[in-house]
Design brief:
It contains 15 helices and 13 strands. The strands form 4 sheets. It has a 4-stranded antiparallel beta sheet. Strands 5-8-7-6 form a 4-stranded antiparallel beta sheet, sandwiched between helices. By secondary structure, it is an alpha+beta fold.
């Protein structure tokens, strides 16, 4: 139902590992900076240094100068948040913390092993993560408020572009535009009936006390993200769940009973309540997916192969036949042209395309149409057969104003936002009491005037 990427998880893991290392090394505690009424402890600095080393981040300059200044800037933002009474949703904080703790448990095997690894109880690990997440979200909220009005005009973008040297322009990787005609092989009704019958059997076994829900989830659930945890999803809000799933899960009240069968875009589920906490819920589920038969996949392949041959024979064009054949609602009425959800454009870098489409496109010339591809549609997790046409290819190049206007505009917006934030920090620093311990002052700070 949901996943945490390895990179994201590793970063959070680094934070907690660093804190554990600081504790284990018995670092002597002392206040090294004071910003407003907020102290910065030596342990905070050591934690950040350990974290960045663990994550392979290079620290430009003396760590004992760079890191406390970074923490000081964060405290300026947190102080402003207090003045502006900016708060973040505790439900959202708890949700993020639960997701990260679930990642730890998944990586290390159990709650006990997580506590053993970090040498502290789960409650303490949770509190540290909650503080980190809360502060980070507050800082982001303050920054977003400060730069919310940043806009650029075409005239400003042109003027900015003319000031840039060729070396400072970003290199745009090769980009392609592709068209697709997609068919979704029909799942046989007997397969759906078999899946439902198996889920009903699981429900009866749990309700009668014959089997544990978590055991059945480990053995049978087709959700790889939760199966190893006995189907447990961790605390989540309604917004993070499929609507049909949420409607049933949030109406459960008896942790000993199993829900009715729920159909979502992912397949068919049964759900067991674990605990409700405010506007969040923790539950287990078992997911089973009806699978199409090879015969139906082969029929779709043969049909699209025939369509491809007719296009190449000139009976009709790719664009003409797409709305009549394709079953992909996102592309069928747009000549089959795929849209990049990350950028809003129709251009894709090769790494942004679904793997099977990218593999086919890599061997094609502009105008070529692939043979039928059988793959999984990541949007709805369904088997799909498609033919792909390479509409255009633009080789790697330095960004230019005509073809890459939005890239240049984004650069200017980012520059404006960075300048606003830098000016704000400078002003806030001048208006805030700051004291730095004597032997922590001999530094080349990014911002002048910390020492008055």
């Amino acid at each position: 139902m949901k996943k945490i990427t390895l990179l994201f998880g590793a970063l959070i893991l680094a934070i907690v590992v660093a804190k554990a290392q600081v504790s284990q090394n018995n670092i002597i505690e002392e206040v090294v900076w004071v910003v407003g009424d907020e102290p910065i402890y030596r342990s905070e600095v050591e934690t950040q240094i350990q974290q960045m080393k663990y994550d392979g981040q290079k620290i430009e300059g003396d760590p004992y100068c760079v890191i406390p200044e970074m923490i000081a800037v964060q405290k300026l933002y947190l102080h402003q948040a207090k003045l502006d009474t900016i708060v973040v949703s505790e439900g959202h904080v708890n949700q993020e913390v639960d997701m990260r703790l679930n990642y730890f448990i998944e990586q290390l095997g159990s709650t006990a092993k997580v506590e053993e690894y970090f040498r502290k109880p789960m409650k303490e690990i949770r509190n540290e993560l909650a503080e980190y997440v809360r502060n980070n979200n507050i800082v982001q909220e303050v920054q977003s408020t400060l730069v919310s009005d940043v806009k650029v005009t075409p005239a400003e973008v042109r003027k900015f572009y003319n000031t840039l040297s060729k070396d400072s322009l970003p290199t745009i990787p090769m980009q392609v535009e592709v068209q697709v005609i997609s068919l979704y092989p029909q799942v046989p009704q007997q397969e759906i009936d078999n899946v439902k019958a198996q889920l009903r059997e699981f429900s009866e076994q749990v309700n009668s006390g014959e089997r544990e829900f978590s055991t059945l989830a480990i053995l049978h659930s087709e959700d790889p993200g939760s199966a190893l945890r006995g189907g447990e999803l961790g605390f989540v809000s309604k917004a993070t769940l499929a609507p049909e799933f949420a409607a049933v899960a949030f109406n459960l009240s008896d942790p000993k009973k199993v829900s009715k069968i729920v159909e979502t875009e992912f397949g068919y589920h049964i759900i067991q309540l674990i605990e409700k906490r405010g506007d969040q819920i923790n539950c287990r589920h078992i997911l089973l997916k009806p699978h199409v038969s090879m015969k139906d996949v082969d029929n779709a392949i043969h049909r699209l192969d025939s369509v491809r041959n007719d296009i190449m024979a000139g009976k009709f064009t790719f664009e003409e036949i797409t709305p009549y054949i394709s079953q992909d609602k996102d592309t069928r009425y747009n000549k089959g042209i795929m849209s990049n959800q990350n950028t809003g454009s129709t251009r894709f870098e090769m790494k942004e395309l679904p793997q099977d489409i990218a593999k086919a496109v890599a061997k094609m010339q502009v105008g070529d149409i692939s043979t039928p591809i059988s793959t999984i549609d990541v949007k709805n997790n369904k088997e799909v057969v498609m033919i792909v046409k390479l509409l255009s290819r633009r080789e790697a190049h330095k960004a230019d104003l005509v073809n890459d206007y939005q890239v240049i505009a984004n650069m200017l917006e980012a520059k404006k936002r960075a300048q606003i934030l830098q000016d704000w920090v400078e002003k806030k620093r001048r208006d805030t009491y700051v004291r730095i311990k004597e032997d922590w002052r001999n530094c080349d700070f990014k911002y002048d005037g910390w020492i008055k």
